[in-house]
Amino acid sequence: MKKVSAAKTPVYFFGTCLADMMYADSAMAAIRLIEREGYEVVYPMEQSCCGQPAYNSGFPEEAKEVAWKQVQLFAKHDYPIVVPSGSCAGMMQVHYPKLFKDSPDLFTVKRFSERVIELTTFLHQHAHAVYQDKGTPIKATWHSSCHAMREANCIADSKALLKQLSNVELIELERERECCGFGGTFSIKQPEISGAMVSDKVADVVATGASVVLSGDCGCLMNITGHMEKENINVKGQHIAEFIWERING
Amino acid sequence: MASNEKFNFAQNVAEALADSQLRANFRFATDTLIQRRSTVFASPEETDFLRDVGSSMKKDVLANLPDLLERFEAQCIKNGIIVHWAETAKDANELILSILEDHSAKKVVKGKSMASEEIHLNSYLEKHGKEVIETDFGEFIIQLCHEPPSHIIVPAVHKNRKQIAEVLAEHVEGMEYTEDVDVMLANVRSTLREHFKTADAGISGVNFGIAETGTLCLVENEGNGRMCTTVPPLHIALMGIEKLVENVEDIPAIYRLLCGSATGQRVTTYFNMISGPRKKDERDGPKEVHLVLLDNGRSQIMNDPQLGDVLKCIRCGTCLNHCPVFTRIGGHAYGSTYPGPIGEILVPQLEGLNPKGAIATASSLCDACAEACPVRIPIPEIIRRMRDESYGNSDGASVAGHGYKKNCLESMVWRGWRRSQTCPTMNKMMLKGLALFGKWLPAVGPLKSWMSVRSKPKFGKNSLKDLVKKEGVRHE
């Protein structure tokens, strides 16, 4: 299945801070999926976080410094920057230019933002990935992260990839467009409200009868699976990249 | 829980979340309102176009507000409306009282008006011996319970049918308990009819003021607004200065945006265009119409290009319906006239960040509000600005109370975070530390909050950086 790679531009990979801390395997699966389509993946070793936690918490200066660090790290080549998270991709595409709106670096930052692309959009729209499902029949449900939906606009691509998996029955969530309650530091600053939101989201997940809930964002997954574990609910949470990688490799 | 009482947001939130009936009522209501809105705005292309029109229309109005207000005033005066300017809430209350006093008016019927809630008009007038009767069905119910509205459009949305039946049976003379909505409505209507007949004055809000013609537009469904503004001999309209539109032809778009967003209707049952008092040869209408133009901090807000966007708001309340936080805690928890996302950005500006800045933490920044807003107010961005100003981090801080949240610990945490994300050695050490000792982190502080409803996060043995190296991915 591996496509000819010679003519394809390499791509940069921005792994996200959560992948570094908790979801390294998911990000690794994402890298493998990109490579599978014949692209060489380049990973700048000093990358860290997109800066969103500080940006959303009222510390834009800290966010700006962290953002600038990333911009510099990906400046060596003009490669597309693939991000396995709609939320981080949204931050980099939509909010970086705002952070630098009065800065002489705005031009550089905008060039960076334009190169950012969410993983499933890259796989579906650019790499035209085609998948053959080797897994056993399974019921899965899909959680759309808010920023994947409203900033990175990548949900249609994520679902298009999942729909190629012939043995996966995708059952939509009752309130797919509603936030799971993660919101970065929101889950810590307003734990009760966030708790009420995630518990409703998990109830919707359970109601689908699916055995796995998928998402393109590790933040949401951490929140949803964390609550399911606490409540002893037997549904697995998985990043879409890892799920697809497992399905196509049998 | 009115704005002037002691405000403890955390406690309000805890109480609201503990009330399962309240949560169920809000869930039901917001689900219904979202669904209704979606039927009116079924075409995304058309909706986007309409929202662009509404947004730019309001933007233009704000850009030319002083001139338009002068034009509006001149036209109103030409129409026979007596115009007053109120810089503060206190001014507005005193003005309205003095108009009532001038006419020896004792009994007032009121249409729904958020501006009047903002200035706490009812309690002021009651303190000065006036009888004030709310005539919107929802407002009537909550007035009986001595509660403020819990929603901009549906003030009694926090109560279900049974609870409303109980309120009516308990507080209204001669009314028996019934869950039959038609009977309830008929009973309230006949009670209100008596008040309309005997009131000395009517007070209303204004949804749109048309600068070109000096017309006051009132959007409603129950007909009570029309009763308030036509039956009593005196009509006083209260209007925030930002509620202007420039021309009559601007009305169809903005009216459609308001109805569709607020109640999911294409048009409302009543749309009143008030252009002045009763003329010589006319048989009905008030003998005098007064208009009170309320500033109450608005011109200050207007001076800031980012914050000024909040004044585009047409008070449709759709951001409340789409907000997952509002749906969980309801309007009263915000302890403010304007709850939900719009309240989070408007109230701290009207009342100061200390103490009202706390409500800006009640958002996961999911952007559902901005996605629904008919005039495209970038609500999440202004929420970020409120948070930023709360810590006093912004250069252009302008909201009263900015910097109230400044504290060394949190600043240090974010400085440490910045360091760990910009210095590769520190980053490596942090990841290594989490991999080795993450599972022994004590459940205190933020981790305790996290673990109140979730299991402890599992830090990976390897960072992605480790795997990239191990598995031979090209790195630089």
From TrEMBL, chain A:
Pfam families: CCG (PF02754). InterPro entries: Cys_rich_dom. Coiled coil: none annotated. It comes from the Bacteria. GO terms for molecular function: oxidoreductase activity. One of its GO terms (cellular component) is cytosol. Residues 11-92, 141-224 form the Cysteine-rich domain. This is (Fe-S)-binding protein. It comes from Halodesulfovibrio aestuarii.
Automatic annotation (TrEMBL), chain B:
The keyword Lipoprotein does not apply. It comes from the Bacteria. This is L-lactate dehydrogenase complex protein LldF. InterPro entries: 4Fe4S_Fe-S-bd (IPR017896), 4Fe4S_Fe_S_CS (IPR017900), FTHF_cligase-like_sf (IPR024185), Helical_ferredxn (IPR009051), LUD_dom (IPR003741), LutB/LldF (IPR004452), LutB_C (IPR024569), NagB/RpiA_transferase-like (IPR037171). GO terms for molecular function: 4 iron, 4 sulfur cluster binding; metal ion binding. GO terms for biological process: lactate metabolic process. Keywords: 4Fe-4S, Electron transport, Iron, Iron-sulfur, Metal-binding, Repeat, Transport. Transmembrane segments: none annotated. The keyword Hydrolase does not apply. Residues 303-325 form the 4Fe-4S ferredoxin-type domain.
